[in-house]
Design goal:
311 residues; globular; binds (S)-3-hydroxydecanoyl-COA; binds nicotinamide-adenine-dinucleotide; (3S)-3-hydroxyacyl-CoA dehydrogenase (NAD+) activity; differentiation; NAD+ binding; mitochondrion; spermatogenesis
């Protein structure tokens, strides 16, 4: 019995010290995903530095975090407005902002990159961070579709490199895909999984395959919905209604595409079509291309398949 207790305590201590391994987090990119990741990391007690290109963008990122926290507070502190105020100010107090990414990683245990979905821009960033960050700092990308291994080659720390793929909206979505490349060490992978759990996410282990688990299924499904409309088989509104009421999805594929951003969808699909030309599931969609060419990028631009402009 004592032996079992000691073993349990020891394994708890191992997990617990691993969970404590990541205290300071640098989130690079304060857009849709970066601001959500920064919010949740700070909510779960981590010190966060959020980086973007200008103070103006960072001001907007902080405002969107504040707005999201107000939605949380409305429910969690309905009977305790003072407690709610304290909750928000404690979380915001753990987030600082920076426009210099090299300076931002100086004391960082973990970097989570959430900038534009462009391999060259991501590689340039990591190559520079590799020289600026301490040896122990783990690097991760939140990329939706690029191979983590192709980004990691820009650094000399591939054993301390992995993927942390969050879902939109980060404060609400419970899943985190933890991605390893062949060079990722077990120690790094365990620390990333423990960090995900410390962020109160359910983690799944993924290999560095196109789209990991979720997007490998979600992208072909969504594009097939677009092809269905291109063929004139159904209207996009009927497809959305059908998938919500017939398959139990919270959003139909067109609502979800608008929510994610049609430009992001196009970045993903074009990248895969170029890298895997033999795969019929990854071929471009004329309908998607038409919307993006017209500047209809979804909710963020005010119009996509649906109209979001206030009347
Ligand atoms: C097409 C895909 C192709 C691939 C693209 C790749 C993209 C990427 O790599 C992977 C993804 O992320 S894939 C995408 C994966 N994502 C999906 O699949 C998402 C699917 N959609 C959903 O799960 C639900 O529709 C939502 C949870 C978004 C909204 O819930 P709802 O019930 O439909 O509508 P509601 O009434 O508005 O909200 C209800 C309550 O939720 C709360 N709340 C919401 N947002 C919040 C925030 N930002 N902060 C804080 N709180 C937030 C709030 O409490 C609110 O109450 P309030 O009183 O109004 O404040
Ligand atoms: N949108 C989604 O639903 C979603 C979900 C999961 C993963 N992702 C991935 O997350 C990443 C970010 O997506 P997003 O939707 O948040 O994009 P976004 O356009 O909302 O935000 C990107 C931010 O990065 C900033 N940025 C660009 N280059 C930079 C640099 N060199 N240094 C610092 N900041 C820089 C931009 O100013 C912008 O604020 C992408 O790789 C995307 O594929 C997106």
């Amino acid at each position: 019995m004592a032996q079992i207790f000691r073993t349990t305590v020891r394994s708890f201590a191992t997990t617990s010290s691993r969970q404590n391994a990541i205290k300071t987090v640098t989130v690079i990119g304060g857009g849709l995903m970066g601001s959500g990741i920064a919010q949740v990391a700070a909510t779960t007690g981590h010190q966060v530095v959020m980086v973007d290109q200008t103070d103006d963008i960072l001001g907007k990122s902080k405002a969107s975090i504040q707005k999201s926290l107000q939605r949380v507070v409305k429910k969690k502190f309905a009977e305790d407005p003072k407690g709610g105020e304290q909750f928000v100010s404690d979380i915001l107090g753990r987030i600082t902002t920076q426009t210099d990414s090299n300076a931002a990683v100086a004391n960082s245990d973990l970097v989570i990159e959430a900038i534009v979905e462009n391999i060259d821009v991501k590689k340039k960033l990591f190559s520079s961070l590799d020289k600026a960050a301490p040896q122990h700092t783990i690097f991760t990308s939140n990329t939706s579709s690029l191979p983590i291994g192709d980004i990691a080659v820009s650094t000399q720390r591939q054993d301390r490199f992995g993927g942390l793929h969050f879902f939109n909206p980060v404060p609400m979505m419970k899943l985190l895909e933890v991605v390893r490349i062949p060079a990722t060490s077990d120690e790094t992978f365990n620390k990333l999984s423990d960090f995900g759990k410390a962020m109160k996410k359910t983690t799944v282990d993924c290999k560095d395959t196109p789209g990991f688990i979720v997007n490998r299924l979600l992208v072909p499904y969504t594009i097939e919905a677009m092809r269905m409309v291109e063929r004139g088989d159904a209207s996009f509104k009927d497809v959305d209604t059908a998938m919500k009421l017939g398959a139990g999805y919270p959003m139909g594929p067109f609502e979800l595409s608008d929510y994610v951003g049609l430009d992001t969808m196009k970045f993903i699909l074009d990248g895969w079509a170029e890298k895997y030309p033999e795969n019929p599931l990854f071929q471009p969609s004329a309908l998607l291309n038409k919307y993006v060419a017209e500047g209809k990028l979804g909710a963020k631009s005010g119009e996509g398949f649906y109209n979001y402009k206030k009347k």
